[in-house]
Amino acid sequence: MPNSNDxxxxxxxxxRFLRDTFGEGDALFDAESTCVFGADAYRNFxxxxxxxxxxxxxxxxxxxxxxxxxxxxxxxxxxxxxxxGSCVPRPAGVVVSTLKMNRIIDVDAEDFxxxxxxxxxxxxxxxxxxxxxxxxxxxxxxxxxSTIGGNVATCAGGMRALKYGVTREYVLGLTxxxxxxxxxxxxxxxxxxxxxxxxxxxxxxxxGSLAFISDITLKxxxxxxxxxxxxxxxxxxxxxLSAARAIFAAGILPAAMEFMxxxxxxxxxxxxxxxxxxxxxxxLLIRLDGSRDALxxxxxxxxNVLEKTGPASLDxxxxxxxxxxxxxxxxxxxxxxxxxxxDKISDDITLPRAKILECLVKIREVxxxxxxxxxxxxxxxxxxxxxxxxxxxxxxxERGRAVDAKERVLALTLSLGGSLSGEHGVGLAKAxxxxxxxxxxxxxxxxxxxxxxxxxxxxxxxKGW
Amino acid sequence: MPNSNDxxxxxxxxxRFLRDTFGEGDALFDAESTCVFGADAYRNFxxxxxxxxxxxxxxxxxxxxxxxxxxxxxxxxxxxxxxxGSCVPRPAGVVVSTLKMNRIIDVDAEDFxxxxxxxxxxxxxxxxxxxxxxxxxxxxxxxxxSTIGGNVATCAGGMRALKYGVTREYVLGLTxxxxxxxxxxxxxxxxxxxxxxxxxxxxxxxxGSLAFISDITLKxxxxxxxxxxxxxxxxxxxxxLSAARAIFAAGILPAAMEFMxxxxxxxxxxxxxxxxxxxxxxxLLIRLDGSRDALxxxxxxxxNVLEKTGPASLDxxxxxxxxxxxxxxxxxxxxxxxxxxxDKISDDITLPRAKILECLVKIREVxxxxxxxxxxxxxxxxxxxxxxxxxxxxxxxERGRAVDAKERVLALTLSLGGSLSGEHGVGLAKAxxxxxxxxxxxxxxxxxxxxxxxxxxxxxxxKGW
Lengths: 465, 465
What we know:
The structure is a homodimer of 465-residue chains. With 465 residues, chain A is of the alpha+beta class. Among the domains of chain A are: 104-222, Uridine Diphospho-n-acetylenolpyruvylglucosamine Reductase, domain 3; 226-415, FAD-linked oxidases, C-terminal domain (Vanillyl-alcohol Oxidase, Chain A, domain 3), CATH 3.40.462.10. The first copy, chain A, has 15 helices and 18 strands. At the A-B interface, strand 9, helix 7, strand 11, helix 8 and helix 10 of A face strand 9, helix 7, strand 11, helix 8 and helix 10 of B.
C-alpha cells in the first residue's frame, strides 16, 4: 500500500525522473502551478506532489512503470468536473493531466466508431462527429466541459440515458496501461464481442482505480434526423409522476425525461422569466427524437397522452432552435441554485421508479426539519434524482444541519431500495457510506479484482469502496 | 485446481450429500439419466458424475459450500442450447440444472423491472411481460427454448441488439452464489448505479466461470406499439451492403437488420417457396418498431432510401401478422442448412462493419478451396456474422477440410480486426483460439479476476480463456 498519510515528499531522483520524462513545461512541482490540480468540483483539496502532462502512450507507459517501482500514488484527471472528489490526490501522489492527450484519432462512418484519447472534450467530439451524420448519445450535464476519459472513468450518464443508456454501452474497446507499464487492449472496433471476461466494462466506471485509460474506441449510432421537446407543468407533484407513467404505458420511450420540483422551479424563476404559472409544483421536460415525419406523429401522440394528465402548462419546441429555450431552463438549475444559498451538498441518488414520489416527499420533510431548501430535479425517466442541499457553509451550525440532511437522504435512499449514486460515483464524498450499500463479500471481491490490476494500490487510492 | 483428468469418481459420502440435499428425484447418478446432461448443442459429450436440480437459493448455497470443500467442478446449465460446448462437464464434475428454478418472481410495471430465476425460458418471460405492455428486447434465435440464466451467462445478443443492445444492457442486478456458498447481490432495481466496480456486468457473459447466478433483476422498456418489416433482395452482394450503409446514413437505426447471402438463400429455397428471384445474391431483412403512425412515416422513409439502392425485390409486412412469413424465412435457415450437408461447424464472428464485404468474399473463397458450402448470414447491423461450414462429418477427410476451413475463417476474422465471437462465447469450441485474440496480460488479469471469485477453479473449468 502507498503511504496513507500525507507526509510523503518527492525524492530528488523521483523529481528528476518526472522532469526528464515529461520535460520542464509538463512536469510541475511548485505549489503555485500544481495547486489547481489538487481539487475538483467537489472543492476538497490536497496538494499534489507533482503534476505531469503526458503527450502520448509511450510517456504513460514510462510513468506507470516508474510509479509501480516507487509505489507512487497516481491520480489521473482532466478537467476536474468530478463532483464527488474522485480527482483529489490524497494520499499524496502524482497528478496526471490527460489534457495534452486530446486527439480524435479516428472517426469511421462505416465502422460507426470513434477512437479518441482521454483528454478530448465530449461535447467537442459530439460536434465533430455529428457533421458526418454520426451520434454519440451520452450527454452528462457537463458535456461541454468534461472529457471522454472522465466520462468513461465514471460511466457518465446524462439526459439521453433513458433511451440510449450510459457511457458503458458505448465503449467497445480501450487501451489501459497497468501499474508497471504493461498495456492491454480489451475489446476493439466490433459492436459485439463476448470473448473472455468483460474487462472493458470493468474499467468503465472504475474511477481511475484500476489502470490508466489511454485511448478509447466508442460505438456511434446514426444521428436521428430531428428532435422535439415538451415542457409540461403540473399543480401537483403526483400529477407529474402519473404523467411519466402514462407516457411509458403508451409505449413511448422518450430520449430524455427530466423533471424539476417546486423548489427548483422557484430557484430558476429567480434568474429567468419562467414559462410556467406560479402554482406549478412540478414540471417535466421531455425530448423525443427520430426522423422528421415520424417525430411529428410521435409528438402528436405524446401530446394526446399528456392532455389527459391535466397539465397547467404545455410548451412545445420542434427542432433544436425552438427547443433551445426549454433546455436552457434545465441548464440554469445549477447557476440558479446559488440564488438560494451560497453552498450546496449535491447527491445523485437513484431509486426504483415506483419509489420516486415517496422519496421526493420525504426529502422535502428532511429539508423542512433542517430548515434548509433542498432542490430536487434530474433524470426522472431512469429514477436518477439530483438532490442539492442548499446552505451557507460559513455558518458551522448550518453546515452541520446540511451534512446531517445528506445522511438522512442517503439513508432514505437505501431504505427504498435505491443506489447512492446513479452517475457521479463514489469518490471521497460517498466513501464512508459505501458499506451501507455494498456487502462485505462484494467489497472483498472488488478488492480482489483491484488487486489483479493494481497489486500495490497506487491507482487513485483513498476513494471508492 | 480440480482434477484435470476425467478419472474422478464420486465418493460414497459425496453421493450421500447430494442425495440428502436434493432428494432422490433431483440427484441423478446413473448413466442413463445423467447422459443427456453431458452435452449441449455443440454435440461434444462428457459423462456427468451426477446431476442435481436445486429448487431454490438455500440448496444452491449448500451445494456451493460443499463443492468448494471437496473441490468439485460445478457445471451450471439449463436447456443446453449453447453451441460452443460451454455446458460440457469436462473435467468430470457435477452438473446443476436450473430448470426447477424457473419462477418469475416479480414483474413491476412501475419500476420497469422483472425479477426471475435462471431457469425461466426467455420467450416465456417475454410473452408474460408483454401482456402488461412491457418489453425485454434481447432475442437470441433460441429465445423460445433457451433460458434467461443461459442468456445472462453468455451475454446473449439477438436480432434486436442493433437498436437495443445485448443482454448486458438489461441486467440491473443479480444474486450470485460463490464457491463456498456466500451470496452477493450486486446491483438492484434501479436503472442506474455506479457504486463500486461493476460486478454485475462482470458476471454477465462469464460463461459460468465465476459463480452460480441464482436470480436476476432485468430492466424492462415500454413495449413499442407496433412493428414493420421489409425483405429486400439484391442481385449483387455489394448492393446489399451499400443499402445497409444508406439506411444508417439516412439516420435510421432499425430494430433489426439481418442478412443472408446466396448460399443461405439457396438452402432456404430448398425448404420453402422463396419470395426472391433466382438471381438474388443477397437479401436484407429489416425490422422497424415504434408507435403506429410514426412507424408508417419511418417505413415510407426507409422504402424511399431502399428504392434508390436498386433492389431486385422488396416485400413489406406491417404488423406482426404480415411480418411473420418474412421472419419465418430467417428461422428456417437452421433447419434448411441440413439440406446442404448433414453436419455443420458454426461460428459467430464479428467484424468492424467496413470489413464485412471483404470477409464475406474471402469466406466464400475458403469454402471453394475446401470444396464445401459455407452459409453466411446473421446480424449485419452489428457486424455479427454466422458462418456455417456445412460438411459430412462421417467422412474423415471432409471433416478435416471443414475443421481447416474454420481455422481459416477465424484467422481471417482476426486479421480484419474482428472478434472470434459476438454472442455464442468461447466454451470448448474456441478455447484453443482465444490466445490469438486476447493478449497474455489480458488473460492474466482475467485469471486474477477469476481467482477472486473462484480461487480453487471449480466453476466450469476447462472452458474459456
